[in-house]
Design brief:
five-stranded mixed sheet; alpha+beta; 15% strand
Length: 230
């Protein structure tokens, strides 16, 4: 039932469309302009444009005022900032894969770095509102919203939407938890014992993008229905 709710949400069947909402096509224009500005300010790196989405790629029908986009089009994907493990200050929040419950179940714990902790590997920097996506064994669907600033293992991507007034990170999380997304990712992994999703593949994943106001309505509706299912 939970999976059906998410799939209906992705197809625009969970809440009504409102003709007064600014269409997703206008959101994309604003996001494109903002990304150019971020590149100009050297906050993100300029990257190659991804291929245009063909009609054959589109996975299902979506409402007229929605748009199909790629994950990299609306996020900072590929611009993750890292830090050497030994440079992380004592008292910082450090997230490991085991700290997240599978299937979007929340957090197990929050590891706080102590003076004698010795992290041998680099960590990604995490900021409040980042969508944390576990690339290792993605079928576990360890996907959450960062509740505070900190650091994470590089087996987890801290994905930042370009502008939270244009794209809801909570909506993006539900997209990544949905059946169509998980099924396509699981069919693309490499490695037998410890499968991972490829960075390029994830960057090009298709996202059904509604108007911003509808994104918020979908999140509210999904949360209410999930609570009833529980």
């Amino acid at each position: 039932m939970k999976q059906s709710i998410l799939q209906y949400a992705m197809e625009g069947k969970l809440v009504k469309q409102n003709s007064n909402d600014e269409p997703a096509s206008e959101l994309l224009k604003k996001i494109k302009d903002e990304k150019k500005q971020l590149v100009k300010e050297k906050k993100i790196k300029r990257s190659k444009s991804l291929p245009r989405i063909s009609e054959d790629e589109k996975l299902f029908d979506i409402p007229e005022n929605w748009e199909w986009v790629r994950l990299k089009d609306i996020t900072n994907f590929g611009n993750f900032n890292s830090v050497a493990g030994q440079d992380i200050q004592e008292g910082s929040w450090v997230l490991n894969m085991e700290d997240i419950i599978k299937n979007g179940g929340g957090f197990n714990k929050f590891t706080i770095k102590k003076l004698n902790d010795d992290f041998k590997s680099n960590k990604y920097i995490v900021e409040v509102g980042d969508v944390l996506y576990g690339k290792l064994r993605p079928y576990l669907r360890k996907i959450e919203i960062a509740p505070k600033n900190g650091f994470t293992t590089t087996e987890m991507f801290p994905i930042k939407v370009i502008n939270q007034n244009l794209i809801s990170p909570y909506y993006l999380r539900y997209v990544m938890l949905s059946p169509y997304f998980a099924n396509r990712i699981n069919g693309s992994t490499y490695g037998m014992k410890m499968p991972r999703v490829g960075t390029k593949y994830l960057a090009s994943m298709l996202i059904p993008l509604p108007p911003f106001e509808e994104q918020k309505r979908i999140v509210t509706k999904v949360e209410k229905m999930m609570a009833l299912v529980k």
